[in-house]
Predict the 3D structure of the following.
Amino acid sequence: MKTEKSSTPKVGSAAPRFSLPSDAGTDVSLGDYKGKWVVLYFYPKDHTPGCTREAIGFEGAAAALKKKGAVVLGVSRDSIATHCSFKEKQGLRFPLLSDPTLEVHKLYGAFGDKMMYGKKVTGVLRTTALIRPDGTLAKIFSSVKVDGHVDSVLKAIDELGKV
C-alpha cells in the first residue's frame, strides 16, 4: 500500500497558502484574513460524533475568539453540499472549506498514517494550525483530542500574543 506523506510546516515560518471553496459558494484564501489570528482546523467528516463536538466547541467559543481577533475555518474533504447540511444542522456560523483532493490537508500535516481500532490506516489526522495575524505559523496541534481542544487554542492565543 503506497501512502503519501504529508509534511508539517515549521512553527515561525510562513503558513502554507491555500484557496478552497467554502459553504458560502465562494473561495476562501488565507490572505483573506491578514491581520487576524486564524484557527485552521482539519477534521475527518461532517455529521460524525467527534467532529460535531469539535465544531460545536468552536462555535461556542466564537465570542471569545472574536474578542482575541481570531477567526475559525473548518476544513474537511466533504463536499460543499454536506458542509451546508452540517452547518445548518449544528447552527455553525464559521466557514467550512472543502478539500476533496486533500492537497491543503497534506500542506499542514493533516493526512497520514494513524491507528484506528487497533489497525493502521491512512486518513485525515485531526489537526489544528494556529496562524498569526502576520501569516506565520504560531502553533500546530497534532493528534487533537476533541475534549478540551478549544480551551487549548484559546490559551495558546493568549500565550503567543494578542493582536
In short: The two ends are 45 Å apart (CA to CA). Confidence is low (pLDDT under 50) at residues 1-5. The first helix runs from residue 49 to 60.
